[in-house]
């Protein structure tokens, strides 16, 4: 937004202060007004701690979802999730590691009585929020296929993924314990098939997803990591679920073969090739096959410990963002193939 004033060379003496005042007000509005939510760019603001107990329906007014543990200033009402009937969204409050934490729960839609839903836990990017990814990642169509979505909130919008990131790392927050708790807690609020659960992590959430996988949650059957990296120890005994890794060949945050120093993180994330090399080694994966298609390279490792497989999709001309790598288009078929009952 710019204020442009075109005048003749002669300016009345009493008019100049008025123009300066107007210009100051316009600039002030531009600077103070918060940016629009954008999960791709990581600018979505975290929300205030709500005075909620247990599982509470989310209100359908306002623009920012109030989640315990996210800890940003403000006083905005919560909003229902995308495509949801009124009162269907829930903010679930719990305590993990002595901290109040919370997640946004979006139940599966249209399930017949007695049928259990599958579950996907979605981890937002660094400096992100649960509401921003619920609205922006485009995974909501899964709910109409019988899959419940849960969006945990990172402390201060960050996750402790090991070597990264933010206040969660500084305070040594137990985010692995939090994600494991969410995976198990959802079933106390809506009917869930514990044999059909998966996690999705984007950017910093992808870093945390790797840390969760390396500590092995036995109920996971699939995992999707988008623009993330391994930033924690992974044991040589790890048993992984089927894993899909999605990356842009021109990612300026998580480099494909060369590390990139990220100033606001104060570190260089592990490269894609390094992460996948280490994960496939630690999981004792077998033969690797590679095939190129227009715009995408597909790499597949089969025969990993426990019978799982790892797939890597490298999207040409794509960067770090979820939309840039077409995250939803690539993740949804993978999740459907693992979570939908035959």
Short description:
Helices cover 22% and strands 22% of the residues.
CATH C-level class = Alpha Beta
Largest sheet: 11 strands, mixed
Helix/sheet category: alpha/beta
Helical amount: 10-25%
Return the average pLDDT rounded to an integer: 80
Biggest sheet, strands in spatial order? 1-2-3-5-4-6-7-8-11-10-9
- Backbone shape: globular
Order of helices and strands: HEEEEHEHHEHEEHEEEH
How large a portion of the residues is in β-strands, by DSSP E?
15-25%
Can you describe what's shown?
- The N and C termini lie far apart (53 Å).
- This protein has helices at 15-32, 130-136, 166-170, 175-185, 204-214, 272-282, 327-339, and strands spanning 55-57, 90-96, 99-106, 117-123, 147-152, 192-202, 220-226, 242-248, 288-293, 296-301, 310-315.
- The chain contains seven helices and eleven strands.
- It has one domain: Alpha/Beta hydrolase fold, catalytic domain (Rossmann fold, 3-Layer(aba) Sandwich).
- An eleven-stranded mixed beta sheet has the order 1-2-3-5-4-6-7-8-11-10-9, sandwiched between helices.
- It is globular.
- By secondary structure, it is of the alpha/beta class.
Which SSEs are present, and which pair or pack?
Blueprint: H1 15-32, E1 55-57, E2 90-96, E3 99-106, E4 117-123, H2 130-136, E5 147-152, H3 166-170, H4 175-185, E6 192-202, H5 204-214, E7 220-226, E8 242-248, H6 272-282, E9 288-293, E10 296-301, E11 310-315, H7 327-339
Parallel strand pairs: 4-5, 4-6, 6-7, 7-8, 8-11
Antiparallel strand pairs: 1-2, 2-3, 3-5, 9-10, 10-11
């Amino acid at each position: 937004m710019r204020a442009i004033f075109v005048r003749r060379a002669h300016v009345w003496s009493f008019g100049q202060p008025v123009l300066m005042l107007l210009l100051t007000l316009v600039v002030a509005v531009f600077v103070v007004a918060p940016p629009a939510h954008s999960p791709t760019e990581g600018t979505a603001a975290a929300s205030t701690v709500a005075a909620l107990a247990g599982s509470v329906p989310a209100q359908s007014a306002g623009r920012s979802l109030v989640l315990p543990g996210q800890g940003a200033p403000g006083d905005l009402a919560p909003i229902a999730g995308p495509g949801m009937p009124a009162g269907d969204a829930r903010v679930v409050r719990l305590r993990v590691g002595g901290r109040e934490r919370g997640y946004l729960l979006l139940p599966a839609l249209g399930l017949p009585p007695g049928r259990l839903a599958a579950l996907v836990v979605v981890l937002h990017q660094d400096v992100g929020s649960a509401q921003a990814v619920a609205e922006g990642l485009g995974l909501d169509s899964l709910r109409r296929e019988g899959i419940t979505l849960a969006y945990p909130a990172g402390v201060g919008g960050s996750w402790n993924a090991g070597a990264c990131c933010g206040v969660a790392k500084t305070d040594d927050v137990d985010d692995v314990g939090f994600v494991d708790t969410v995976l198990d807690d959802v079933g106390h609020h809506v009917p869930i098939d514990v044999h059909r659960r998966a996690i999705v992590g984007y950017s910093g959430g992808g870093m945390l997803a790797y840390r969760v996988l390396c500590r092995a949650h036995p109920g996971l059957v699939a995992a999707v990591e988008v623009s993330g990296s391994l930033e924690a120890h992974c044991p040589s005994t790890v048993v992984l679920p089927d894993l899909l890794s999605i990356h842009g060949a021109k990612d300026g945050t998580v480099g494909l073969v060369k590390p990139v120093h990220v100033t606001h993180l104060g570190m260089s994330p592990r490269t894609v090739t390094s992460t996948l090399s280490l994960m496939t080694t630690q999981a004792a994966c077998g033969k690797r096959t590679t095939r190129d298609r227009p715009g995408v390279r597909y790499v597949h490792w089969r025969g990993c410990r426990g019978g799982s497989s790892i797939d890597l999709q490298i999207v040409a001309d794509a960067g770090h963002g979820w939309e840039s790598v077409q995250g939803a288009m690539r993740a949804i078929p993978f999740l459907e193939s693992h979570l939908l009952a035959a």
